[in-house]
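Job type: complex structure
Entries:
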Amino acid sequence: MAKLKFIKNQTETLEQASDRLIEFAQKSPWDLQFEFIDGQYFLASNLKGERPIGIEIDRELLRHETYFKSHSLAKEVLAKSIGIRSGKRPRILDLTAGLLGDSLLFLAMGCEVWAVERHPVVGFLIESALKNAKHPSIQRFHFVEQQASDILKQMPQIDVIFFDPMFEDINHKAGAKKEMRIFRELVGKDYDSAEILKNCLKIQIERVVVKRPRLSQVLIEKPNIDFKGKSTRYDVYFPKIMAQSSQIP
Ligand SMILES: C[S@@+](CC[C@H](N)C(=O)[O-])C[C@H]1O[C@@H](n2cnc3c(N)ncnc32)[C@H](O)[C@@H]1O
């Protein structure tokens, strides 16, 4: 049985872990060690020289906000894909929270964000980071550890669904962040993505945005529009328009 360990001040400590995290650790081929650093837990890597994985919410929000002070949102492909306009900040449901990279960008852009994550290790890192966050924008963030399919049955009031599943063509090319290796190994591929997207498109909301590697195939069918960045493409679907033209798969 793999070990689940929590280390504080270089000493093993008892910590409240969810049943799902304990169950995952019991079945996992890897030992899971969380280290308490600067007020929150990080997942330690088993490789020498690899940084522990965690989410530094305050630091990231500050970094994004500083960037947006001198860069127009109107030119950002991510902002265009979710429909940000002057005076319009859509409410976002991020179905694939992960390490909150996109959610924190949405917050820094001024949106209200609901985020969902199903993996218990990632969920634990998010909860721990949230307890440590002091930035005022975090008041516009709501998190729940669950399956995307569950929140789709009881939707919060939102305008846009954002979906960034782990893609099939996992890319180990040089330049990819080293600490992402352990994250990818842990989370694995998201084989149910096409099914989840089909369900999203049945919901009468403004937009569904799917984040994909720039050159990859579409997840299920051609989007209404797409926005391309250097390495990423955002496939945007308009479910209301699709329903009118009976395009929903
Ligand atoms: C590629 S990562 C998302 C990265 C995130 N957008 C970021 O910027 O940090 C995909 C994450 O979504 C989660 N996920 C995938 N499918 C999900 C589903 N159906 N329900 C809940 N979480 C899901 C995975 O566990 C993984 O943590």
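Summary: Residues 4-43 form one domain. The chain has a mean pLDDT of 91.
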